[in-house]
Amino acid sequence: MSLPILLILGALTAFAPLAIDFYLPAFPALARFFATDVEHVQLSLAAYFVGLAAGQLLYGPLADRFGRRRPLQFGIALFALASLACSLAPSLEWLVVARFVQALGGCAGMVVSRAVVRDLCDPVASARVFSRLVLVMGLAPILAPFAGGLLLAHVGWQAIFVSLGLFAALCLLLVCRYLPETRPQDAPPAPLAGALLQYRLLLADRVFLGHALTGGLSIAAMFAYIAGSPFVFIDLYGVPAQQYGWLFGSNAAGFILVAQFNSRLLRRRGPDFWVPRAVAFYLCAALALFVVAALQPAVLWPLLPPLFACIATLGLVMPNTSACAMAGQGTHAGSASALLGSLQFGIAALAAALVGALHDGTARPMALVMLVCAAGATLVAWRTARCRADAAVSLGREAQ
User: Fold this and answer.
1) Helix (H) or strand (E) holding 346
2) 72 belongs to a structural domain
3) Quick one: which of 160, 224, 359, 366 is 20 to 30 A from 178 by CA?
4) What is the pLDDT of residues 247-293, one digit of tens each?
5) Does residue 188 fall inside a structural domain?
6) What is the biggest distance separating any 2 CA atoms in the chain, rounded to whole angstroms?
7) pTM of the model
């Protein structure tokens, strides 16, 4: 895969973390502006997750029917317009609706980027490309909260959303100029009427569903952290909004470094080998985080090591579960990518909402939701590995 395409795909996959992480430092300011509390402001984050989950189901069949470029161009344009609408929000209800529409546009980049990787790469190469995309898109959660804090301090929260609109406009220009159509030319256009049937077939595929749920539960734990960290860092432990980005970015840096290490691991074993082992380590880190949070330390630093371990381990889980789920999807890569992303962010929306619902003025709700998600991901991953092993044994017997 050429470097320009890799960079464009990285920018497309950065839409979600940018639109999420960029405005996290502004949660307290938004609460003051709309005369509410941080828990209600978190509804705008949950609305974004719901939009990501629902919108991807629309773009998958469109990408299989009309190719990768046209649905992508429409989605980016919608994201840009919705970002400007967010900056003009006179009420929290307006912001929540605009964030939902913003997600409907932004998820096009997520669906199409995975489909393009599947168009151009085999499963092992796909896992390596996804690891590299983590490096490209990982700059977003490192720089976004820091930049958002600066804009908040010097201009105001509205500038955060204006900046997102300008970023989308630049991405649209790059896609129109440099991203070719990658859908196989010899593949017949998938009829839109068959979209529901294709989704039903994918949901009946236990291996695909297992990898999708493993990745979804793991990502949900990360978004529980995203939803809860502004309160834990800024309100509970008094971290200034401008410094919040440094803490958030340090965890994202661990995520990036482990993802690059994943490329080396793939030289020895395939992605399906590493997934159950990675989520088991993830579960141990989440358990340690919950124990520390339950003790309610008077200072922040005891929470940081297990939190860093949780987020860093996702650098192993996310690229490998995506590659395993997309393997063998062929001409239906768009639908598979859409269902994969929809399941993942649907679970993430529930996790983010649950953190707000369980809010008790401590770090325990965030840690508890992360632990439950990690436990679920571990159980599903090991069950999926067993299904793959049973299928391999059945094929061997049939061959005999």
Assistant:
1) helix 333-357
2) yes
3) 160
4) 877 887 888 888 888 888 888 888 888 899 999 999 999 999 999 99
5) no
6) 71
7) 0.73
What domain range is 90 assigned to?
A: 3-179+195-399
CATH number at residue 360: 1.20.1250.20
Tokens of 294: 């339950």
Quick count: other Cβ atoms within 10 Å of Cβ 221? 34
Contacts 24+ apart (CB under 8 A), 43-46: 43/92, 43/96, 43/356, 44/92, 44/95, 44/96, 44/99, 45/20, 45/99, 45/226, 45/227, 45/352, 46/227, 46/349, 46/352, 46/353, 46/356
Q: What is the mean pLDDT of the chain?
A: 84
Q: How many residues does the chain have?
A: 400
Name every residue whose Cβ is closer than 8 Å to that of residue 260 and which is 6 or more positions away in sequence: 131, 132, 134, 135, 315
| Nearest partner of 175 among 260, 67, 90, judged by Cα | 67
**Domain-embedded: residue 64:** yes
- Selection from 130, 9, 111, 131 nearest residue 340 by Cα: 111
Q: Are 341 and 211 in contact (CB under 8 A)?
A: no
**In this predicted model, what pLDDT tens digit does every residue of 153-197 receive, in sequence order?**
888 889 999 999 999 999 999 999 888 888 877 666 666 666 677
